[in-house]
């Protein structure tokens, strides 16, 4: 049982990871202890994060993030995340960074957080051989005005490290189109675009993401499977889905990996990739995602090599970085 199937050892490209959502519970507990903040309510007796459903998950996520009070905390967090990812064979990763949790949307404060994050990422690249890039992310349930502040932070720091702009949060609140100003602002700054859609929203949310926001990637997107025309449209347009099967199973979208639509979407010609979303929350790692997919669908080394090639080609980094990683 100690022996891993060979697919889990492959070098991996991960496109969908939330920085705060990747925080090891031990780090959050340690920071809470240092700051004398009482966070006992967010942990189960076994030390893992405790939540009932998606909206409760979002509130536990925000409570955990409350101990990440400054750039130094984000430096420690970044190092911890990259250590974990490197252990799981990840060689290139894109992480969602929210100015909302990094200075509240103030551009000067955001720059300080970003400098600390990049410092840790540079150290991890040198010591662990993993490359990280950032996608600035607004939080949907914080509303369109707060999203504009995130977009301005993104535009001010757009470049070879902040490579994209996106949106997470509660898909049940508002509409994709409410955030058009922010996505336009980011696009004009040269950033590539992705948004969460088709996770807790249905096919219309995915259609709006593509048609109204003009994104080239979609976070999750899996509920497109409920609309055959939309599946064809995604395949035709070459939209890449950042699929997080373990996250979807824990949050109750599908009862098991075997019931997950990732294989059907792939067979229909949609560009699919695999990520963990918020690994400690969902008791997963990139290694485990690969193992579970191999078991559920009989995927082998060639299938995973294909998924990784898709992910690398959909990565938002520049060509130099892409060819260094490949
Ligand atoms: N933020 C962190 N994880 C998320 C998810 N799975 N969906 C939406 N927003 C999120
Ligand atoms: Zn996500």
Structure explained in plain terms:
- With 326 residues, this protein is α/β, with parallel strands linked by helices.
- It has one domain: TIM Barrel, CATH 3.20.20.
- The chain has an eight-stranded parallel beta sheet with strand order 1-2-3-4-5-6-7-8, with helices on both faces.
- The structure holds adenine and zinc ion.
- Zinc ion binds next to strand 1.
- The site of adenine has 10 residues, from loops.
CATH architecture designation: Alpha-Beta Barrel
In CATH terms, the superfamily is Metal-dependent hydrolases
Biggest sheet strand line-up:
1-2-3-4-5-6-7-8
Q: Low-confidence parts lasting 5 or more residues at pLDDT below 50?
A: none
GO molecular function: hydrolase activity
Keywords: Hydrolase, Metal-binding, Zinc
Family: Belongs to the metallo-dependent hydrolases superfamily. Adenosine and AMP deaminases family.
Cofactor: Zn(2+)
């Amino acid at each position: 049982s100690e022996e891993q199937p060979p697919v889990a050892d492959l070098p991996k490209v991960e496109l969908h990871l939330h920085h705060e959502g990747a925080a090891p519970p031990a780090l959050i507990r340690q920071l809470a202890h240092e700051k004398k903040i009482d966070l006992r309510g967010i942990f189960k007796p076994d030390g893992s994060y405790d939540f009932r459903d998606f909206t409760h998950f979002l509130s536990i996520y925000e409570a955990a993030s409350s101990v990440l009070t400054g750039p130094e905390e984000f430096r420690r967090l970044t190092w911890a995340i990259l250590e974990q990812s490197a252990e799981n064979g990840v060689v290139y990763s894109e992480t969602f960074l929210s100015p909302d949790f990094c200075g509240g949307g103030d551009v000067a404060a955001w720059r300080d957080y970003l400098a600390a994050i990049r410092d840790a990422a540079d150290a991890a690249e040198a010591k662990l051989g993993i490359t990280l890039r950032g996608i600035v992310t607004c939080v949907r349930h914080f509303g369109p005005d707060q999203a504009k502040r995130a977009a301005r932070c993104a535009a001010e720091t757009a470049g070879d490290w902040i490579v994209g702009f996106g949106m997470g949060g509660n898909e049940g609140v508002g509409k994709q189109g409410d955030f058009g100003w922010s996505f336009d602002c980011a696009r004009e700054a040269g950033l590539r675009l992705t948004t969460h859609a088709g996770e807790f929203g249905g096919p219309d949310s995915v259609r709006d993401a593509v048609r109204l926001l003009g994104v080239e990637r979609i976070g999750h997107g899996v509920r497109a499977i409920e609309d055959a025309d939309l599946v064809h449209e995604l395949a035709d347009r070459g939209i890449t889905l950042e699929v997080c099967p373990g996250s979807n199973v824990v949050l109750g979208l599908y009862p098991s990996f075997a019931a997950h639509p990732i294989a059907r979407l792939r067979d229909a010609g949609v560009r699919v990739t695999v990520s963990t979303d918020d690994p400690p929350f969902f008791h997963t790692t990139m290694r485990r995602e690969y193992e579970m997919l191999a078991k559920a669908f009989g995927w082998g080394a060639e299938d995973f090599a294909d998924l990784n090639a898709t992910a690398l080609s959909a990565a938002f980094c520049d060509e130099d970085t892409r060819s260094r990683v490949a």
